[in-house]
Task: inverse folding
């Protein structure tokens, strides 16, 4: 069965990013992101695509933009709607929605899972993760990580599945 997994790190106030960058540095979360998304399709908006200096290895990039003449900075599939992106995901495949805020909002009704890293801080942002409606989602796993010399903020990995 097709799985569509939203993966994000968001602060307590659902802050995702500011000025097309992350407001924190969590090396272990980057490792987890790589582990979970490697070998799969990753779906993102144009701004998220442009935040990468190069293509992420071992992942098929699908970028959504309204610009019909958009030329990506590295090879990837370009579509003009979330529905167009979902059409590129086969019935037995897993794909990850990786941002940004508007793409997460659009994908919330289609997602089967959410992998959320909850950063334990309230941070300034211009992009936010949508609220998770607890009547639609079951929290099935929590894994807390304290702040340390490599991680300024404590954080918790949260795994949700659609009810």
Result:
């Amino acid at each position: 069965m097709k799985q569509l997994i939203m993966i994000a790190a968001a602060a307590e106030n659902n802050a995702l990013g500011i000025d097309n960058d992350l407001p924190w540095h969590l090396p272990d979360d980057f490792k987890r992101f790589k582990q979970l998304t490697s070998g799969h399709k990753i779906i993102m908006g144009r701004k998220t695509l442009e935040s990468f200096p190069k293509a992420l290895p071992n992942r098929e990039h699908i970028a959504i933009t309204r610009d019909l003449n958009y030329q990506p900075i590295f090879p990837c599939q370009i579509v003009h709607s979330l529905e167009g992106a979902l059409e590129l995901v086969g019935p037995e495949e897993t794909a990850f929605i990786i941002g940004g805020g508007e793409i997460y909002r659009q994908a919330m009704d289609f997602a089967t899972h959410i992998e959320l890293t909850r950063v334990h801080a309230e941070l300034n942002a211009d992009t936010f993760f949508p609220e998770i409606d607890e009547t639609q989602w079951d929290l099935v796993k929590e894994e807390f990580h304290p702040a340390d010399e490599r991680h300024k903020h404590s954080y918790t990995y949260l795994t949700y599945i659609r009810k």
Remarks:
- The radius of gyration is 15 Å.
- Residues 1-8+41-116 form a domain with the Dihydrofolate Reductase, subunit A fold (CATH 3.40.430.10).
- Strands lie at 3-11, 15-17, 41-45, 60-64, 77-79, 94-99, 113-119, 127-128, 137-145, 155-162.
